[in-house]
Structures are given as structure tokens and as C-alpha cells.
Amino acid sequence: MRNIIKSExxxxxxSGITMGISIYYAVTTFFWIIIYxxxxxxxDIGEVLAEQGFPTFTTFPMCxxxxxxxxxxxxxxxxxxYSTGAIKQIASRGVERKRIILGQYFVVSIWxxxxxxxxxxxxxxVATAFWGIGEGLTPLNLLLMNLGWFAVIWSYSAxxxxxxxxxxxxxxxxxxxxxFFIGGNIVVMIVSILVNNDRIADFxxxxxxxxxxxxxLDFGQTxxxxxxxxxLLLVLGGVCLALCMWLFEKRDVA
Length: 254
Fold this sequence. Notes:
Blueprint: H1 2-14, H2 16-40, H3 43-49, H4 56-59, H5 64-84, H6 86-91, H7 97-131, H8 139-167, H9 170-195, H10 198-207, H11 209-217, H12 223-250
Helix pairs in contact: 1-7, 2-7, 5-8, 5-9, 7-8, 7-12, 8-9, 8-12, 9-10, 11-12
């Protein structure tokens, strides 16, 4: 298992995809810091940002682009192995296939967590230095914020790994993720209208996977509710990972 993790980590570190995404987040973080610096001297913008402070840490991943970049990262690293034929070499290492999946999942999750955490933390620290810690932020909120981050990244990474191994194409993998976000929201809206029942509509909306990601980071709700969404995300991530291990064990990659 350790050798698999070392090998996959080295592959990720040498990948142009990893470098490209790292540069992208470095550049966007730099521009956000510039925006915050300018806003510091703009009264109108400053009043809006003053309500956020450190909680900007949570807003960083709450957009579709973030998850599409995550999907591109995972798809490029893993699904690309099928087109290059590298998957044959990976599967012939004499290691249980489920351990290969676990190793790949661990490595891509660590990389995404590291890249995201550094970029988001820099942005949040600058916002905090300018406008303070933010309104209503408690130690419990801070704990749940970090748990939510972990749940969002590691559960969606499991889903991305499953999709990458299922479709075996980095481009098709990205298309599926786009449909999952954009098409999924449309489906939720249509179903919510058709059922003509507010309770059922709200339930469908709240528990659609893309909305669960938002709920896991929303510390404006009760701690119990946020913890429930976090736990549900982790369970869904575990299900995706288990399905991926089963799929890879049954698949003929020779």
C-alpha cells in the first residue's frame, strides 16, 4: 500500500495537470488579495466584506468551477491511464486492486486538499487582517468548517475517482461532471415543480448531492444540521469508493 501511494504521489507531482491547477489557484489567490487590498479603501465594498472576514475560507470551494477543476484533475490523472495503456502496468503490480484504488484515492484527495487549503487560507487570512474574524464565528463553527471542508473534498474525490474509472476517458469524465452540476440542478427544479408539494420539493433540493456540498459548509444553520450533512457526504463518498473498488476488481484491463 505504501509503495502504491509513493508511486501515485510521484506521478501526481510530475503531472502537468497538477502544475497547471496549482498555478491557476496561485494566480487567482493573488488577484483576490489585490481585490481585498483595493476594497480595504472602498467604503461600500468594505462594508460587504466586513461581514465575512475569516469565513471567506468556506466560500472558496462553493462554486461549480472548483468541482470541475477537481474532476479535471482526477480524470486527467486516472482516466488518462486507460488511453495511454498505463493502467495495464498499474494493474499488474501484484497488489490487490482495491488497494490500488485506495492508494489513488488517497493521493488525489491529499493533493486537492493541500492546493485548496493553502489558497483558501491565504485569502481568508488577508480578509481577516482587513475586516476581522467575521460575524458569528465561534470555535464550534471553525471546527465544523474544517470538517465540512474535509467531507466536501474527500467525498467528491471518491465520486470523481469512480467516474474516471467507469468511463475511462478524461474528457468524457469532465462532461459527466458538467452534466451532474448543470443538468442536475435543472432536474431538481423540474421535479420540485412537478410534485407541487413544498415539503417534498425542499427535501429533493436539500438532498441533491450538489446541494449537500453547500450545506456541509454552511455554518449559518444549527451545528447538528451541519454535522448531519457532513456525515451524509462521508457516507456517500464511502459508497462511491466501494463501488469503484468493486468495478476495478471486475474489469479486464489486460
